[in-house]
């Protein structure tokens, strides 16, 4: 076998796992996705040495060889004209039902086994987290926690520079007060946090202060800022517990400890008596996450809403009662109420602190954000209502949200409203905790002494998070009261996430370093079906051991590189989302082709190339650095042919495939790949 033939043969072997996945795909879209990955992977193998002519033939044959019939799926339908019996809640008033989901059962494949984990897209906007990540990358150091959180709040544009100085001064003074709350002048509105549920509902951007519990000495011990979804950022967190360390971190509510009688206690805390916890927006804050719930309800009332569960979820999210992650899970759980076969369990998944409403007068005392469910004796829910506070409620009527008063339900007596029972409660955030942190389709639990973690991912990203963030999410989930897992009992971790073993510093390696455990991860797409059938041609996962020889600085540099990779992936996704930005930057890219922005210019033009807004000839003429070290002005014939082959497919239909194609174009030859690699190492 000739060297070239041998090289091609070896390259083909390297992509056989992906072709094997294509063979077992359940849909045409999934099959094509694997074939695209095969092209991408093989392009990396042969970059700079052979053209993609051979690759095109191989993929073409693979498409024929591995063609499969589409498999039937479970189809859910929403039948029309379903009207519940929840009527006459006021004089001459009727309520038309929200659409209840019925199910039509068809031939079904086990979804948990065959489902291929998809790549993650752009995260919901979170100005606090964005400021925290930028601050981490900048490497700014702080002498105290108050300096750090005040700077984060200013960077996030929640407070002004003047308010930042005032906040720092007030936090320092508060350490000497004997009566903290009335003298601190720290908050616009303050809430005492007494339960884990309260902790999980602290809004994005709110200040969180921990004080001593001894009477007349309730001085602050520590302060943090809320990221939302029960996560908090700070430095010198060892003031709460030595295990939390002193570096910049985003940690979970579970890592802070547990509440006993309204007091936060942690086994490793220096404060044996526990701590009081206070939360609220800092004095003078010009931004708050969420609008007043009644104001949001009035706005939504003017918009048609065909989906009852979505209507309630949007109300709770836009008012800040739930974070965007929590609202997404709430919507999924609320929607399942109408199709569940275990109605009582479904309601328990949605509501906690449940109590039966026996008389309409009890409705007036429900705090804002509380849910009211009208259900049959078997807990089959027919209607959901949200308390706006002060005896006001929002309930979906026909295709719109409607505002009503508790007095409209005068027929509610003896625990019954017509034929229905009425149950009120708070959103069960603890039951939704795993999904809100790891996303849909997630798995988290022990199998023997192996911790299995499943979440959607992308290069350097696990469910929208950097791996260093994700490590603390794992720690937090292990500390949950109902499903506590002792890290010492974990022998190894299996990370079932796309791209978990991808790149120079994979997510699997960062997780191994942070948790001190062996981690098995998958280099490209993950599906359980592939993992359960380890035939010779399937992709082999990689195993990462904790890097015991790395010092703190080296580990931190790796984590920073991870964040840069994450940012670049998001940048590619953002280019797709805002095509006008690509168009507007073309002229500037041509005019300012300097060393410090060569990669920026090339990235935008590759984006135009992928979207077929620029010809291959024009691209190669503009970017000699793409195919040479500057000594060659005429592109090799193979480069143009390789680009034509790679870009022959249709224009990408989503952010992920768009980003993958850009990476594939960069990876076609060693010059452009090296430019990208250097850029990611220094941005």
UniProtKB/TrEMBL annotation:
Top-level taxon of the source organism: Bacteria
Protein name from the UniProt record: Uncharacterized protein
Q: Which organism is it from?
A: Arsenophonus nasoniae
